[in-house]
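Re: beginner question about structure tokens

> Can someone show what the tokenized structure looks like for a real chain? I only ever see the sequence side.

Sure, here's an example I had lying around. Input first:
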Amino acid sequence: MLSSSKIKSVDFYRKIPRDLTEASLSGAGLSIIAALSMMLLFGMELSDYMTVNTSTSVVVDNSSDGEFLRIELNMSFPALSCEFASVDVSDVLGTNRLNITKTIRKFSIDPNLNPTGSEFHPGPIPTVTKHGDEADGEYGEGSVALTSATFDRYTHQYPILVVNFYAPWCYWSNRLKSSWEKTAKIIKERYDPDLDGRILLASVDCTEEGDLCRRNHIQGYPSVRIFRKGSDIRDEHGHHDHESYYGERDTESLVQAMEALVAPIHLEARKLALEDKSENATASVKRPAPSAGGCRVEGFIRVKKVPGNLVISARSGSHSFDASQMNMSHVIYNLSFGKKITPRLMSEFKRLSPYLGRNINRLNGRQYITHQGDGDANVTIEHYLQVVKTEVISRRTSWGHKLVEEYEYTAHSSLAQNRHIPVAKFHFELSPMQVLITENSKSFSHFITNVCAIIGGVFTVAGILDSMLHTTMRLVKKVELGKNF
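And the corresponding structure tokens:
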């Protein structure tokens, strides 16, 4: 066995007897300075170890979310009726999807953006197959032509007033005209306005009565509205909507629909109708204009990762639109790309880099408003979006290395006048490259090595300084005593 003396021979830290050592004031000062230096350098090293260091690189997009991209949207159109609001998507590969409804919801709003009811459920406009009878030139004029001066009186005079708002230049209005006038004559014969007075069919030429049509929020021609007791607003479980006719447009179908409207009304209503025909009874009656004239569109769509367009416009397979009367003003509450980032991930995102995340919702809160009559007719509002993906990888997360994937975009908007129906158009173009941000965390062994280097280095340098200072002081004393070196 090794003796204790042999073991002691390998001691790197041999001790000097305490009585052979000498404490000095200069040594104490250097010791204090050395200790403070160690503490300062240790704190700096600890802070550097705890600081997040990231490296940024640009690589080819190798997204894990495949070839499709999710677009979240929530925006309000104060002058676009939900009856015709359509969300369309197209791209450079030929994809063209019209009137997306599966993942899009619509809510009626007033011009001040306040909701007027629950979710809007459109009528069966696309199912209209019979748009009218063949015009034979002998149908005559069966409906009553209404003007702004007579409209309010007639709406209060009859329990049911069905009005066809049309435009002479409209193809669909001309196809409906023959069957509408025939239906009006048949209904007038069956329910005489003077003897029965329960229903009347009328027409309004919107090219002549533009203010009247705007007051009733007519945006598509022809629009057949049903007025009960002076109003066309239908209230169903808190859902306020214009009561419109969406059925077939041939004479037979129209007659059946009109008779179905009359059936619930008892014949005794004729007396009230006749009494209401007096000028004194109707002179002071004013029908307020409906407040439901706008639409809030929200939801999401999935598009391919190629340049494309998201278009919100007025669309119908059986209506025409007057471009000069369309207003595509809108307020954007949310427009974002990719999956929604949770607040927890966003806070972690900001921890890695405070400069990221500023362009995730670039258009949020923006308003694009135009006004009719101020030279802003036929205005299409276009937004050009350049989308770049940013992927952040963290080395400190317990749930894995990848922290978050998000899409940022720049936006440039413009207003342009043209002859076509105005739309709100979002042109998006995705970059084939992505920004990769990686957190480079330091190893603990590297931190310990630096700490040891700091302690040993400071201790050694302090010892050298102390030795130099002690030697210098001894030489000075010898010189003072007159001793030789």
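Each token stands for a local structural state, so reading them left to right follows the chain. Residues 277-289 have pLDDT under 50 and may be disordered.
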